[in-house]
Amino acid sequence: MHHIRLFTVAALLMGAASLSPSPAMAQQQGQDWFVPGQQRSGQKAPSRAPAKPQPTHTPLPLPLPPSQAAEAEQPSPPIQVQLPPAPEVPALPKGTSPPAAVVGVLSLAEVSRGAVAAQQVDKALGERMAKLHDDAQKEQAAWRDVQQQLVSERAKLNADQIRAKERDLQERVTNAQRQFRDRNRIIQEAAQYARAQIERTLRAVVIQVSESHGINLVLHQEQVVLNYPAFDITQQVVEQLNKILPSVVVPPDGVPVAKMPGAVPVAQGQPTPGQASPPATTSGTAAGPTAAPTVAAPPTPPAPPAPPASTEKAAPSQKKHP
């Protein structure tokens, strides 16, 4: 639900672009818009002189698009030359055969739905995204009210006063854009911080459950066409994960991860606090399926709204009577 709400925030913020006057509105206000290739309203098409005869010549062929050019090309014939001598491939010493595969299947989607810690993060971040959505709606309504007030007072203001009020509105929009981006970034960092905790423990739990059953190969259930219930270890992983990690540390609302207690800079090449550690090599256990379950990570920050349209040029009489 919070994903949908954030998309609504982006739509609301981008809706500020609709405050700009469209060409149709400009035509109603008496402005003349020129479109190349068309004659302006109220003007007659200029008379053209008779075209002079051009010298005849053979036009050059235009290049074909890449797709058509590839089809037009004929396949080149195979090379009929002798290659250099091939290098000798020496035999390798006899190695140890891998053990027989004992397969286990894990569904990360079910782990995400059943993990109590993931539900905690989902609820906390959902509330923050809902608050961000409401604040964005209120701020956009305030922008519209200020602009409507400026339009209604335009006849009483001179050009300098109109520009000053437009600058104030532009500064308010710019500051709100920055604040919304910062708040969204902090929510993303909190989601990554919590997801890294779940991923770290989930990897250990998958290894533990796999070793208890003698499993040495774990596959994603979403990538398996046929799966017997005896191979599925999802439910046992969820139960063990909830026992070991019933909750995670979620940064308080508005607090960046860098300001969390114990946060230290990470050396180059190492994962940041909001990123997961690289999968460790574990003998007999696949590290791929132990990725973190999907947590309520917010999407990318909303696009900033366009600045309000200037209202100065809509009142030419103001220039005559400042």
Largest pleated sheet: 2 strands, parallel
Mean pLDDT: 73
Following the backbone from N to C, one meets helices and strands in this order, namely HHHEHHHEHH
Beta-strand residue fraction: under 5%
Quaternary structure: single chain
Binned, the helix content reads: 40-55%
Structural class of the helices, strands and pairings? Answer: mainly alpha
- What is the number of helices? 8
Radius of gyration: 33 Å
Label the overall shape: flat
Distance between the termini: 52 Å
Taking pLDDT < 50 over at least 5 consecutive residues as the criterion, the unreliable ranges are 1-13, 15-38, 55-63, 272-307, 311-322
Number of strands: 2
Strands of the widest sheet, in order across it, are: 1-2
